[in-house]
Amino acid sequence: MIRGLWSRETVAMVLLAAYLPLGLFWLWLGGVDAIGRLGLSALVVAFWHLVFMLARAQAPSLAALITAFAIAMLAPEDLGVFRLALGISFGVVMGELVFGGWGRNVVNPATVALAFLGFGFPSFAWPIFDAPVAWAAIPAALIGVLTGALSAALLGGAGAVALIALAAGLLPQDALLVSGIVLVLLVADPVTSAATHLGRWINGALYASLVVLFATNWTGAAPVQIAVAAALLSSLAAPLLDEKVLALWIYQRRRRHGRT
Amino acid sequence: MVFFGRNAGLMPEFPSPAGPSEIEDVVTEEAAIRPPLGRAVAVTPLVKEGDTVARGAALACLRHAPDVCFAAPIAGKVARMSLLPGRRMSEIVLFRDDSGGVETHDTNKADTQSGLRRLMQDAGMWPRIARRPFGGMPHHAETPAAIFVMATDTRPQAPNVQKALDGQRDAFARGLDALTLLTDGPVVLCHPEGVPGVDTKAVSDRIQFAPRGTRHPQGSPGICIHQLYPADIDTPVWDVHAEDVAALGTLLTTGSLPMTRLVSIAGPALRESRTVRTHIGADLRQLTQRIVAPGPHLLMSGSPLDGLSARWLGGRDRQVAVLPRAAPARQTHWLFAALTQSAGTRPAIPTTALSQAFGGALPAAAFIRALASGDEETAMTFGLLSLLEEDVALADYVLSEGGTLLAQFRALLDHVETEFAA
């Protein structure tokens, strides 16, 4: 039997390749501290994947590395080993592994872990990114879109709303840069974003609108906090968006053919 | 990248050596007929082993619908007749013997609906038609809501349908006109853009023309049916290949049904690929004997995507894929096996490749999830009943499922069928 390319693990590898420019820039500018955080989160994520492989026969996925990278990059700073490990464990287990592993999860495990850390330990400062790291999100998005692993519609929807907000002066510079990184890393995840074409446009637009809403009305919030909250809410809304888009598709077909 | 409309789809490439461009006529020394895929059919044999039969003579008919016959693809001697328990047909093998002659049928009553239907069933045309939903050949008294004539084939390495029609354009037009007798609905001719393959003004005005793109699955019957005239339990839709419509046209003028068809032989395990004009049930070993490369290989009737390992050319197949036989898998360490494979199937990740595997015709991710979870109602709203394995094969290939998706699809379809039959 001849087999094609796009199995779950290949998609994970393509996504890893897409995030490579972002990761390399972040590691280069972050130095030893960044490597340490990445190593710790990779270790914790790998541990839980191993536990679920042995206990539930769930094949682990390379997407675990993406989760580890996103958490290491975006988690609040100076948390210490215990708090960070606790947050990652909650996110990975409750956000992904209990649902059956990568591909069956409803929300991105990194988003859950980051939201948990943000709510649980509000006194720790969120990270701040240098402009080069944020710019590296653009090649990441390009690789993802060209290979088809990331949705062009979702990035387009978010980009369109961001442009309008920029023109109206509603989106500050720092929020724009960070929300770009979060868009590529967390929101555009093909599993937890909307899966229909129109749904992806709306999903991207919803994320960008939430970022604008929080940036203008949430006083005292850090840019990463704003973007992670918007990512969490928009990925929770994604199934609803899909449902509505599919209902519209079925309605149109019934009108045209009298049946589906 | 997202492509829409006639640009939707993919172009999967399979390696195959080049070969001569001329078309060779081959009648194999042995040939066999097998029932169409799907439900097993109970038959009554009409000949005995050792009988000499004419080309086109009826070999067996359906037990519960004796009008529907299976015709001999070559003139010859009946070598073996294998029936499974319950008189279900397995295969009937013939040895070639040209002295058998050619069977002719009376075409006097073919200008009425019942007469044409009777002629097609007698002459062995019926198994060449596929019906949707559920697949297989149509029930003997069924009236389709629409008939799709496929003058395009976008499967990788498929023979050029327009080349197959060369020299039989008149017969094709006559066959198209005849098909309008069988249905009250439209007869839809799916053809490559700009090449309808027939004089559009010379045929009945009940024939609709549907230009299709060049990427697979644009020329897949199920995708065309799903987009243009969806099939349902009460509205069965038939699909028939353009070459078979031309054969119907010839049957109407000469009284004998041509058995030949253009078949492409391709695949990485060949020394050179070929296009031959051969017949249904041709012996694949003889067809590939001189051109196959040394080493173990696998002969498949059908395209590399949806073909099945076979000895004989299938009733609706126009491709032979020759693939190298993979070495048996080595025993892996338990930890490595646990890391790479698990008991359960892995989920499909919605990517652009997946949406394009259905030509953008349906919400791919939601459809795949409905198949995986066995949710038949949702799958039916997304077009389960218009599709068959050949339409889903590209998605199975793209997702690297190795047949899991096709098995899920067939299980769901069978379940819907038994549920609605009850």
UniProtKB/TrEMBL annotation, chain A:
InterPro entries: NqrB/RnfD
UniProt GO cellular component terms: plasma membrane
Biological process terms in GO annotation: transmembrane transport
Residue ranges crossing the lipid bilayer per the database entry: 12-29, 35-55, 62-86, 106-126, 161-188, 226-251
Coiled coil: none
UniProt-listed Pfam families: NQR2_RnfD_RnfE
Domain of life: Bacteria
Record key words, sorted: Flavoprotein, FMN, Membrane, Phosphoprotein, Translocase, Transmembrane, Transmembrane helix, Transport, Ubiquinone
PANTHER family found in the cross-reference section: ELECTRON TRANSPORT COMPLEX PROTEIN RNFD, NA(+)-TRANSLOCATING NADH-QUINONE REDUCTASE SUBUNIT B
Name recorded for this polypeptide: Na+-transporting NADH:ubiquinone oxidoreductase subunit B
From TrEMBL, chain B:
Na(+)-translocating NADH-quinone reductase subunit A C-terminal domain mapped to chain residues: 263-309
The NqrA N-terminal barrel-sandwich hybrid domain, residue ranges: 41-94
One of the record's GO molecular function terms: oxidoreductase activity, acting on NAD(P)H, quinone or similar compound as acceptor
Keyword set, alphabetical order: Ion transport, NAD, Sodium, Sodium transport, Translocase, Transport, Ubiquinone
Swiss-Prot/TrEMBL GO biological process terms: sodium ion transport
UniProt domain NqrA second alpha/beta: residue ranges: 113-257
InterPro entries reported in the protein's UniProt record: NqrA, NQRA_2nd, NqrA_C_domain, NQRA_N
UniProt protein name: Na+-transporting NADH:ubiquinone oxidoreductase subunit A
Species: Marivita hallyeonensis
Species lineage: Bacteria, Pseudomonadati, Pseudomonadota, Alphaproteobacteria, Rhodobacterales
